[in-house]
Specification:
binds adenosine-5'-diphosphate, Beta-Lactamase, 27 strands, 845 residues, six-stranded antiparallel sheet, rod-shaped
């Protein structure tokens, strides 16, 4: 805006200045032309007057000489004609008005012309003669087209005056006119054109067009005029020329060449500058603004480009991340074209199918689906085409032909213009899930069978007893009771096994490993099985060795017991079951090596063998029987009372000891179960007392005196039973009452605390899951009590306690027993033994 304003102002000022210069220039030219007109008119006047004067002098000489001889006059006249330009002729006309002499030529025509003119201007010549003054005639036509005029100078002769005139040359004509006797005229005939041409300066003629008018009659016009009416109209100047009685009008106007010289380029320079400068300024500003705009546009573009580059980098980074994620994804991902051929697969996809990624490229997807499932997969593909996405579980075929279960999600793919471009395939191996599902189904079917069958037996036998129909038949009643007891044991075994395997395999059960003598492991196992073997008519043959291993004794005894139990179960009566242990150097077969976790294969190990002469195990079952709920014959559980979990538990336990368990068998000849555990590298075994009860006896060797001060016999001993289950509490009360022990029952933790304070019992039997206060809380509170902090305690719980829990539950002498893991008989024996020990120590103190 500012630019436009400045430009307009500059243009306006330039125009004003230019206009000023134009006016000044015009004024200057006009003045010059006017001056020239004055000069030219003066010049013409003076020149003609000079000629008149010269003729007058000639006349004076005539007068002084009383006439002039022809020769003298001709010479004189010739000089005149020569010296003064413009003459056509110069002549002497006598007093009778006859032309006598003519210079330069005496052509008769000239005479005639002069005569004619004399006639024509008789009046003038008469006036001249009368006034004795030279006189100019108006313009005459000298010959065709040639204009001119005549000057008459009268001649008078007076002798006397000749002398006077010679004295004073400067006297005027008027001074002597009255003394003359008329002697004719000197007549000068002038051609106006040539006369004025000779008068005018060449420079004047170049610069101006000169015209002379007499009245309306143009009598002179300078030659070589560049006629331009506009110049003429604008610049012409007029001036009057008065010579005698003749009045001429001079008119001049400048020639273009002159004007060109007069016109100052400065004016145009100003104008052009005045126009060009703003134009340039505007253009420069336009360019500047354009360049600024362009620079801004470039800057914006650069910013946009930088943003675009950043965006692209971000997108590329995201793509890289996505690619990385795709590359490292555990799920198989593939991209396929519209015809179902692989375009790209991630490593997981190729790995799952046993191919290399590039091997799959170009192949058809149905090739990786089990032939029997292809129709199903094709239907899913159709569904995907119709509804964007489809999910299906089918069997996949690996490159090597092996089969696995997979879940396949097909998602329709589109290109950037939203055209269908194929599909994505997301694949996951669900073999493990299928296996788990299979195991779960199997577990439920086995467990439901295993639980319902003994429960039905228990319920049936107890129902008969409760109905009273067997009151008269005590033998049958006893048999029913035995059935109930056996099936209860079976149920307990099943539940313990299930819980065991879950906990062992999940690593929940910590192995309480210690240095154990092998003999101390074999002996209790055999002791537990002795009665059973006896009942089955099987002889147990044991061959032990003295060696030390780093093991959890209870768990190893559990393994040996299970192996012996199986061997006895499947041996015919009268046969022998052998249990041997021997130390071996580590020489492990390649087949075994893969399954062994020995940290150092050169470690010597103890090899247990349980051998029987039973029915044997088919070779294809030798490995599977170590799986859960696996039995050689489905009827084994029913016939032999097993659960199919024993060997699975054994394998878990042995594996946790960095050992290995396996079986060899010949059908109908017998089986041998091998179990090897690395020997302890300790030189000297720690002197730790090992127990093999199946439970940990957390005996605190606390020799401080019991809080119980009074000496009691068994009959006066008080036992506080803390159990919220009334039935179980009643069974426990009965057990102690059989020994004449005073019993008290608390149903909650709070009651347990109150009764403990009131009774100061000799022993407390404590369940852990109690209302209000838990068993843990009860122990915690009793620990803080002065008289009860050393109270002997039997924790009788359904939970398998961790080491940490065991520590938390320590009070006085503390025994930890798990319900159903110990039989009621075992419970009775241990609790009574503890009470006896306490009483004995009290007495001693
Ligand atoms: P169970 O509680 O059924 O005995 P196990 O896991 O201990 O469970 O044994 C699994 C199966 O292995 C048994 O049911 C039986 O079929 C087979 N088996 C185990 N030991 C022997 C053996 N010594 N002789 C023959 N078959 C055996």
């Amino acid at each position: 805006m500012m630019t436009v304003f400045v430009s307009i102002a500059v243009i306006f000022m330039s125009l004003c200045f230019w206009q000023g210069l134009s006016i000044y220039q015009s004024f200057h030219i006009r003045k010059y032309v006017k001056l020239a007109a004055v000069n030219i008119s003066q010049e013409i006047t003076v020149n003609i007057e000079n000629r008149i004067l010269a003729l007058t002098r000639m006349a004076q000489r005539w007068e002084v000489g009383g006439g002039t001889s022809w020769e003298e006059w001709t010479a004189d006249a010739t000089n005149y004609v020569h010296d003064y330009s413009g003459y056509k002729v110069l002549g002497w006309v006598n007093s009778k008005y006859e032309v006598c002499w003519l210079v330069p030529e005496s052509d008769p025509k000239e005479f005639e012309l002069i005569n004619l003119l004399l006639e024509e201007h008789r009046t003038i010549s008469e006036t001249t003669k009368k006034h004795q003054n030279p006189e100019l005639t108006p313009t005459v036509i000298l010959e065709r087209g040639v204009k001119g005029f005549l000057i008459y100078v009268p001649l008078f002769v007076r002798e006397k005056l000749k002398e006077q005139l010679s004295v004073s040359q400067s006297k005027s004509i008027s001074q002597y006119q009255h003394q003359n006797a008329f002697d004719g005229f000197i007549v000068g005939v002038f051609q106006t054109q040539s006369l004025i041409d000779s008068i005018l300066d060449e420079k004047i003629k170049r610069e101006f067009a000169v015209e002379v008018f007499e009245g309306r009659n143009k009598i002179y016009r300078s030659s070589d005029i560049d006629f331009d009416s506009r110049i003429e109209n604008r610049w012409s100047q007029e001036k009057e020329i008065k010579i005698g009685n003749v009045i001429w009008r001079l008119r001049i106007y400048p020639q273009p060449a002159f004007l060109r010289g007069e016109y100052s380029p400065f004016k145009n320079f100003v104008l052009s500058n005045g126009l060009i400068t703003p134009a340039l300024l505007t253009w420069a500003i336009y360019l500047m603004q354009s360049s600024q705009k362009y620079a801004k546009e470039v800057e914006t573009k650069n910013r946009e480009l930088a943003n675009e580059v950043r965006e692209r980098q971000k997108v590329e980074e995201e793509l890289r991340d996505q690619n990385k994620a795709l590359e490292s994804a555990v799920v198989g991902i593939s991209k396929l074209d519209v015809s179902g051929h692989y375009l790209k697969v991630n490593p997981a996809y190729a790995d799952l199918l046993g191919y290399k990624a590039k091997e799959l490229k170009g192949s058809i997807w149905q090739q990786t689906v089990h032939p029997e499932d292809r129709e199903k997969a094709n239907k899913a593909y159709e569904r995907m085409l119709a509804s964007e996405k489809a999910e299906i579980e089918v069997r996949a075929v690996r490159k090597d032909g092996s089969v696995f279960d997979k879940i396949l999600v097909m998602v329709k793919a589109y290109d950037s213009e939203q055209r269908f471009s194929g599909h994505y395939g997301f694949m996951k191996d669900i073999s493990q899930r299928r296996e788990v599902e299979r195991l779960k189904d199997e577990f439920i079917s086995v467990v439901s069978h295993e639980l319902r069958t003994p429960l039905t037996s228990i319920r049936g036998s107890l129902g008969l007893l409760a109905g009273g129909v067997l009151q008269t038949r005590p033998q049958q009643a006893q048999r029913m009771l035995q059935i109930a007891i056996n099936n209860s044991d079976r149920l307990i075994r099943l539940i313990n096994n299930i819980l065991d395997i879950e906990r062992i395999e999940s690593g929940e059960v910590q192995m309480n490993k210690q240095i154990c003598d092998v003999a101390n492991l074999i002996h209790p196992a055999v002791e537990v099985m002795r009665d059973i073997a006896q009942k089955a008519g099987v002889t147990l043959s044991v061959n032990s060795v003295s060696a030390r291993i780093w093991a959890d004794p209870d768990r190893i005894i559990q393994v040996l017991t299970n192996l012996l139990s199986n061997a006895i179960k499947f041996s015919p009566s009268g046969s022998t079951v052998w249990l041997t242990a021997e130390v071996k150097e580590a020489r492990i077969s390649p087949q075994q090596q893969g399954n062994l976790n020995f940290s150092n294969s050169s470690t010597p190990y103890i090899l247990f063998q349980v051998r029987d002469r039973g029915r044997g195990i088919p070779s294809n079952k030798l490995e599977s029987i170590f799986g859960r709920f696996q039995q050689v014959d489905a009827s084994d559980s029913r016939k032999k009372g097993g659960t199919g979990l024993g060997l699975a538990i054994c394998r878990s336990i042995i594996q946790q000891h960095c050992g290995f368990i396996w079986a060899q068998s010949t059908e109908n000849q017998g089986s041998t179960f091998y179990c090897q555990i690395p020997l302890s590298q300790e030189k000297e075994a720690a002197t730790t007392t090992t127990t093999y009860s199946g439970e940990s006896l957390a005996l605190a060797k606390d020799n401080s005196s019991s809080s119980k001060k009074k000496s009691n016999t068994q009959q006066t001993s008080k036992v506080l039973i803390v159990e919220d289950d009334t039935d179980l509490a009643q069974v426990i009360i009965s057990i102690f009452q059989r020994h004449g022990i005073e019993t008290y029952h608390a149903k909650s933790g709070q009651e347990a605390l109150e009764q403990s304070l009131a009774l100061l019992p000799d022993l407390m039997i404590l369940d852990l899951t109690l209302p209000l206060l838990s068993g843990f809380d009860v122990v915690e509170k009793l620990r803080q009590h002065k008289h009860l902090s050393n109270l002997p305690l039997v924790v009788y719980t359904a939970f398998d306690l961790s080491e940490k829990d065991q520590k938390r539950l320590k009070l006085g002498k503390t025994l930890l027993l798990t319900k159903a893991r110990v039989t009621p008989e075992e419970f009775e024996q241990r609790a009574i033994n503890l009470l006896k020990l306490v009483i004995l120590e009290d007495k001693e103190s």
